[in-house]
Amino acid sequence: MVPSPLALLLALGAAATALAEPLHFVDCGSVDGSIQEVNVSPCPTQPCLLHKGTSYSINVTFASKIESQGSKARVYGEMLRVDIPFPIPEPDGCKSGIQCPIQKGHSYSYLNKLPVKSEYPSIKLIVKWELVDDQDQMLFCWKIPVQITS
């Protein structure tokens, strides 16, 4: 018997959840939503050790306080209080686990990847992850400390 795509997705989700511990994060301005949980996998301790050449799974559970046709992610590396844009493969929230349009009062699981390129310097910094609605208002914003390492 061949498993259904839904069964495979649920199994993968359960496996990812088993490896991911909810992180302690700083909410940095969630206005149009409220964060329920942030997971980065693998990240067993904080600060998260991000190994060059590795991709990390991001899962943010949040509740929306507004209606929005779409959403867009922006990710930064924060050093000395300066935000340096950090490219991610898929900035469109509607292609990252969120069923759009976003409905007021509904909870969503935002899923994305954080690739750590080999050419990044070995450094401690803060990862700042924002998701904005179609009015450029903050659905969520969170920060965690990380250390990029070889």
UniProtKB/TrEMBL annotation:
PANTHER family found in the cross-reference section: NIEMANN PICK TYPE C2 PROTEIN NPC2-RELATED (PTHR11306), NPC INTRACELLULAR CHOLESTEROL TRANSPORTER 2 (PTHR11306:SF68)
GO MF term set: cholesterol binding
Spans through the membrane: none
Location of the protein in the cell: Secreted
This protein's name: NPC intracellular cholesterol transporter 2
Keyword Signal: yes
InterPro entries, A to Z: Ig_E-set, ML_dom, ML_Npc2-like, NPC2-like
Keywords assigned by UniProt, alphabetized: Disulfide bond, Secreted, Signal
